[in-house]
Specification:
It is built from six helices and two strands, in the order E-E-H-H-H-H-H-H. The longest helix has 38 residues. By secondary structure, the protein is mainly α.
């Protein structure tokens, strides 16, 4: 960023903030023109800031690692050794308490990282089959309605032309 930075100082009593410059007055006058950064080469990607990752990555700990850290923490006898262990491993004390709880419950599976996101629905095949049957039922209902409409038109046409229709066979008559 070029030029002096302007910041605001809070005045006592909640008055309007007073602006001040971060560059001393003697160097602000001699700073001169702003020198622009060198343009990147054509087609070259800009260099990312190494201090900040583009996307944070969640740490996942294996059961063996958790058990090893718990054994090391339990072996600590002197004050401050657990803190040194946590700093060395980059962990928090809440990790230890959660892992101890999981270990005491006796679930080694509880020590493995949990899968994140939506859980699979165990009724998914039944729901999919139900939806398929509903669609098939709608399709067949539409086909039946079309057939009934055609039969009604045929009856009316035979009445107009005077063609006698044979009586329906059996008990199953259409409407």
């Amino acid at each position: 960023m070029c030029g002096p930075q302007v910041r605001f100082r809070e005045r006592p009593g909640g008055a309007i903030p007073q602006a001040y410059s971060t560059v001393p007055p003697t160097t602000a006058a001699t700073a001169g023109a702003c020198v622009p950064e060198a343009p990147a080469a054509a087609g070259a990607k800009p260099i990312p800031d190494p201090a900040v990752p583009e996307k944070p990555v969640r740490r996942r700990f294996t059961a063996e690692y958790k058990l090893r850290v718990l054994r090391d923490a339990d072996a600590c006898a002197e004050p401050g050794q657990v803190g040194a262990l946590l700093r060395r491993e980059g962990l928090y004390s809440s990790h230890l308490s959660a892992w101890r709880k999981q270990r005491d419950e006796g679930t080694l599976a509880g020590l493995t990282p949990k899968r994140r996101g939506r859980k699979a629905n165990p009724d998914a095949p039944v729901i999919a089959d139900n939806e398929r049957l509903k669609r098939e039922n709608q399709r067949l209902a539409a086909k039946l309605h079309q057939a009934e409409t055609i039969i009604e038109i045929q009856k009316k046409l035979s009445e107009i032309l005077g063609i006698p229709l044979p009586p329906p066979e059996g008990n199953g008559s259409v409407r």
